[in-house]
Each structure stands twice: as C-alpha cells, then as structure tokens.
Amino acid sequence: MTIMDKEDELLVNNRKKIKKQKSKKRSKAIKTSTPNQERNIKQNNTQKEKHKKHGTFKYKLISFLLIILTVVTLSNVLIEEIFSLFYLIPIAVVSIAIVLLIAFILNKRNLRRWIKNFISIIAVLIMVFELLMLFFGTKTLKFLSSITDTGYRVETFGIYVLNDSQYKDVDELNNKNLAYLNHDDNKNIKQALRKIEKQIAINTSSKNNANDLVDELLNHKVEAILMDTSYEVLLEEEQIEKYQKLRLLETIDIVDVVNTIKSDADITKDPFVVYISGIDTSGNVASKARSDVNMLVAVNPTTKNILMINTPRDYYITLNGKGKKDKLTHAGLYGVEESVNSLSSLYDTDIDYYVRINFTSFVKIVDELGGIKVNVPIRFCEQNSKRSKAPQDLICLNKGLQNLNGEQALALSRHRKTLPTGDRGRGENQMLVLEAIVNKAMSPKIISSYSSLIDVLKGRITTNMTSNEIIKFAKKQIKDLDAWEFNSLSATGSDSSGVCYATGSGKAYVMEPDSSSVGRIKNALDRLFASEKDIIVENN
What we know:
The chain has helices at 3-32, 35-79, 85-106, 113-147, 187-199, 210-218, 231-238, 240-243, 328-331, 336-347, 359-368, 406-414, 422-441, 450-457, 467-479, 515-529; strands at residues 152-162, 176-181, 202-207, 224-228, 246-257, 272-279, 291-300, 305-310, 316-318, 325-327, 353-358, 372-376, 380-382, 395-397, 400-404, 461-463, 485-490, 493-500, 504-513. The protein is of the alpha+beta class and 540 residues long. Strand 2, helix 5 (187-199) and strand 3 (202-207) form a beta-alpha-beta unit. Helix 2 (35-79) runs parallel beside helix 4 (113-147). It starts with a helix and ends in an 11-residue tail after the last helix.
C-alpha cells in the first residue's frame, strides 16, 4: 500500500467518524427533547410538506390553464379566419412552442422557486393577452353580426291634427274624418289604418301627395291626417307655415321586411362601390328617412385607390322605382334601396354595398375617436345636432386646420348656407370629414377606444355587407399595410325649381344636374374599375 492510499483511507475513516458523531448528537437531542419540541418539529415538517405540495399544484394549474387557453384562442383564430394561413401557421407554431416550454419549466422538479415564480408571471401575462383577444374578438364578431342588415324596416306613421284643435287623444276622433297619404297604394299605411280602425270608427279618404294631404286638414275638410313622420322634415323645410299649424297626436310603428341588396364582388381583389347614407334622424337607423349625406365610395383593393363621390342632396333625379322626378334626399323616404338604385342609374354603375348611419351616431363616433383633424374652409355658425336655433346652442368654427369634436364635425358636414358653392360645398366638406374619420380609425390610437366605439355604433349603423366580407377585407389590409390614395369628385348643377314626387303639387328648389359633371364621374369610375393609375383626368 502506497503512502497516498494510506492517506485516502485515513480521510475516509475520519469522515465516517464525523458522521457517526453527528448522528449520535441528533439522537441525543431527540431523546432529551420535550414532547412540545417534538410536536413543533412534526408540525414544521408537515407545514413544509404542505407548502411544497401547494407550490407544485399552483405551477401545474398555471401550466394547465395556459395550455387550454392557448388552444382555445388559436382555435378561435382559425375558425373565424382572422388571419390568413400565411401568418397563422408560424404564429401557431411559435405560440405552441413557447407554451410547452413554459409548461415544462413549471413542472420541472428541483428548480429554484424564484425561477418558477418568474415564469409563472410570464404565463399569467400571456393568459391575460389571450383573454383580451377572445373578449375583443367575440365582441367584434357580435357587433359585425348586429350591423348586418336583416331586411327589417320600421316605418313610423303619425296621426296629425290642427295645432289649435281640442283633440288630445285618438279616441276623441271616433266617427271623425281622416285622410291619409297613399303613395303607390302603400301597404304599410294600410296596416296603420287597420290598427286605428280596431280602436275607433273613422271615415277615411286618401291623397297622393303631402301638400294636398295637409291642405285637407288646413281647410277643415278632415279632422285628422295620417302620414309617415319623415314627411315632417319636408314640410318644416319647404312649407314652414303649414308645418307650424300641425300637431302630432300619436304615432304607429309598422315593421316590414324587404329583400336586401346582394353583391357577388370579392372585396379582397375586385373593385366595389359603397353608398354611404347619412339619414336625417336621431332615432332607429332602420327607420325610413331622408338622406342628407349621399356619398359613393369606390374602392379598388388591388391598386389601393379610393374615389369619393359627392352628389348634392337636392340633385333633381329620376327615382328608379317610381319613374318620377324628385330630389335625391327624398329617395331615402322609400328605403335605402331606392337611393342605391337611383344613384346607380344616374352614374351607370353597380353599387354593391350601402352603409346607413344617423346623425346621433356621427357625433358619438367622432367623440369616441378623440376628435378628427380637418382644415375648415371658412368661418361659419350652424345649428347643433338637436337643431336648436338658440344663440347659445350654435356651433361656430373659425377657418383653418383644427381638431373637431363630434358636434363640430356634424356642423361642418351640415352647413351650406354661407358656402360659395352651397350644397356642393357641403358635400365636399363631408368628404373631408369622412377622410379624416377613416385616417383616425386606421391609426393605432383607435385601440384605446375600440371597445367603447363598438358600443356607440350598436343599433346606430347598418350595412348589407356581411360580417364575413368585412373580416375578409380587414384581413387583406393586415397583410397589405400600404397607404390608400384618396381622390374626390363632386357632382355639380344649376339652381332650379321643380315638382317633387314626395311632396306633389307646388314647385320646390332643386339642383338641375350638369351632364358634363356626371360624365366626369362616370369616367373616373370606369378608370378606377380598370385599375388605371390616374383616376381623375383633368381635361374630361
């Protein structure tokens, strides 16, 4: 045996002696310990064991929830086709790899607790992100479904009497005379009449236009008249003295179902046209009403070109479904389909989609966006959204670039009286406002107000574009983030007067279309659909 071997043997023997001595000391300590000390030792050992088991369960629970939530989120993204497969596959692979790595670390034994706690925090943050995705995704899909036009229409009819008459209730009209507006043998007004006749006995007669109907009441030939409440605005604007002599006694809502306009365009690659109708009401967006904003937005998703076309509200056109002349704004009284078809005939183009929005929505949308930046062309004052004429309620704006709130943006969109080009100028301002809204809505800042913006739009906007089509278009934009190029044109015309189908006898102010202006718009639409580089040709 060498010297080195002897030294190793001595070292081993010494270690064994030290272990025996420590073992003897522990045994002696246990023998000499009191019952209370022994109980405390057992309790401490039990608590340590429980704490260890609790920590292990916590990490297992976090990893389990993370895996389940990730699977649910990815499945939802796949089912709803929120992203194309080009993006979805790498996102899914990376997400699953990260989640499995986190789960492995959290379930690994003999790993320092602070490391597991740190990884747990990351896991919780991922789960919070996934829950937010599910929440906003579900909310968005519900919203898109809610704005899709189902074809239901609400037409509100009013029973009117003279303002100075003694009638306070419909029952007081029992056995009296009532005249009603019977445009094209309207089936809805016949339903309203039947509702009245179930309540009281009444003698009825009909008139074919609003002016003659009101004259029947003013000349005391009948005690009451029945007409669509949307005609009130026409009378207030064109026959203010007659309007002030009327008093609304009661309203009757009739729900109707129509066939909505369908399109076979592929909005991810085919050019399409959207009609934006700003209806003159603050109530139900499904109600029939005048359209004060009449804008066509032609979109070429391949060339990233948008052409906005403004048609003045008083444009004197032929109503497609009536074959009679009237102001464009009055087309909305017969449904959005009438407005779409009449504009389609005017510009000789197919209109694929429509979006209807009321004035109340407009104000709230701009406010939720935090305002929009617009270069106001002139200094002016305009009524507020409630059409108050009180001086303190007027919305006054100075000329120049500024951030507008909802009321101010609506005032700019409505104002025309002091504009040099009148209604045409108003339409141009509306296009400025729309472009500002689109730019603001496409900016990252919308994320902070996204949820509240959706809440504001519910019930105040409707479109015939399906939720699937909207999602497909949004996916296309996510894949292609190039900026859009905006162009705008306004139809022009000359001041004139003419008989309007909606009001009947008596001439009213109208704008006679300028054929060269209409031709220029047609040409621009043709060039956009042909994917031409320059949409607007100046010498046309």
